Amino acid sequence: MPNRQLAIPQQECADCPIRHRAVCARCETDELEHLESIKYYRKFEAGQTVVWAGDKMDFVASVIEGVASLTQTMEDGRRQMVGLLLPSDFLGRPNRDTAPYDVVASTDVMLCCFRRAPFQKLIAENANISQRLLEMTLDELDAAREWMLLLGRKTAREKIASLLSIIARRDASLKDLPSKGEVSFDLPLTREAMADYLGLTLETVSRQMSALKRDDVIRLEGKRHITIPDFDLLMDETGDDADGGMLV
Amino acid sequence: MPNRQLAIPQQECADCPIRHRAVCARCETDELEHLESIKYYRKFEAGQTVVWAGDKMDFVASVIEGVASLTQTMEDGRRQMVGLLLPSDFLGRPNRDTAPYDVVASTDVMLCCFRRAPFQKLIAENANISQRLLEMTLDELDAAREWMLLLGRKTAREKIASLLSIIARRDASLKDLPSKGEVSFDLPLTREAMADYLGLTLETVSRQMSALKRDDVIRLEGKRHITIPDFDLLMDETGDDADGGMLV
DNA sequence: TGACTGTATTGATCTCGATCAATTACAGCG
DNA sequence: CGCTGTAATTGATCGAGATCAATACAGTCA
């Protein structure tokens, strides 16, 4: 299970809305004391675009609450999600001030932003931060490669099951619950966003969700709240091998 | 165009078979002098497996010559390539001694290997190397995301055109030639490997290659040598926008 | 030279997911 | 409460790419 926390795990932070999971001021680590001045928060509502592909981006950020997505679009409108950011994930890239993808809030999102220039200075001066960033980027690369297997070789049903298991796991680990037996959570994505994630159409997503429901692999309350009666049963549908191949 | 060189660009190195494009001894940079003892070379023949998924990997390496691929396999045999390593690309990951994917030589390959332990020490002590590694990993992440768009949303024809353009570009930049007008190169992949790259079957790859040939977008001499009469024409087939969206 | 082997091409057919289209469910709001 | 608009479901049909099968081709070895 990859560690997603950038620098200071498990410390409380007075002005963060949740338990602190990112570089931030107010933490009792002297090397980070001066961050105070470079940090600020931003809120986005579900559906809002955080940055457009090609825009200047004068900050990097850590997701505090909610879910955001990175999406690529072709001229003719075909779209593919290429990144899904959940709480504690990192957004942006040192040494590049132009966003390569659209970043869209899937739910209401709270970002903890850091101005670019001082953040880069911080990296340059602080070996352990850049090493942590390397670790996190390598984890993201692993996730991207798992995702490539999904896009290239899995069936629609396997794709859906994989996505649900990924979200269920992340959600469980956020709540410090095990992802075993009965698991339930709120889907932070529309059917369309799921389709963009999986390289499918929203109709196919809907059909396969219905099929999984019919086969009692999942249960739906409303459109968004999902209960998985038996997590192992869902895993059987993903096409992944039983032991932890999943790196996400 | 991403910089793929790890530390010391464009310096000659007495015992490297080609112009030096990777961390290595013998370079006149004192901080790297001690690498001498941790470095060694390994050759692999086309088709040979460098490491199996799950194997211990006690080295990291830089590709000096040839082409290798990273491939994921599902239990039932479905396979998806998730990385393509060309000369100057980096193989392996600090802080993980188990290979997550099969690494297979597509052509004869020469690796410049570094023993894991001293290499990690080097990173820990040497801020600019870990920063360079971060840069390279971020570039790979970009490439992976471009690849995800290909896998999720492109047609078979677009996939083939994209792959050819990627290889043509890399090959041209290796030979310090522009990728404009007429371009020609040797395909370092079998039809099957191309299929694994693109999430297609080898029959579809073959059919689309024939179609591109029929439409005079490419010309074939033998099965492997390819000439692109007009690079722009090929780019029109990729589905990418005209300006440099491509990051690979 | 011809048999053998692995790689590539081409053909015939089938299938999964896309596409086009109609309905339904539901939240917000006058 | 009944409108209105958005998200989701379901149905009917189509087609790109998969699958199964036969053939071509190039290299290698006896």
Describe it for me?
The structure is a homodimer of 248-residue chains. In chain A, a hairpin with a 5-residue loop joins β4 and β5. The radius of gyration of chain A is 19 Å and the shape is globular. Chain A is 33% helix and 21% strand. By secondary structure, chain A is of the alpha+beta class. Chain A has two domains: 30-138, Jelly Rolls, CATH 2.60.120.10; 154-236, Orthogonal Bundle (Arc Repressor Mutant, subunit A), CATH 1.10.10. The interface between A and B is large, with 43 and 43 residues. The structure holds a DNA duplex (30 and 30 nucleotides).
Give the arrangement of secondary structure elements.
The structure is a homodimer of 248-residue chains.
Chain A: E1 39-44, E2 49-51, E3 59-65, E4 68-73, E5 79-85, E6 90-91, E7 102-105, E8 109-115, H1 116-125, H2 127-153, H3 156-174, E9 183-186, H4 191-198, H5 202-214, E10 219-221, E11 225-228, H6 231-236
Antiparallel strand pairs in A: 1-8, 2-7, 3-6, 3-8, 4-5, 4-7, 9-11, 10-11
Helix pairs in contact in A: 1-2, 3-5, 4-5
The structure holds a DNA duplex (30 and 30 nucleotides).
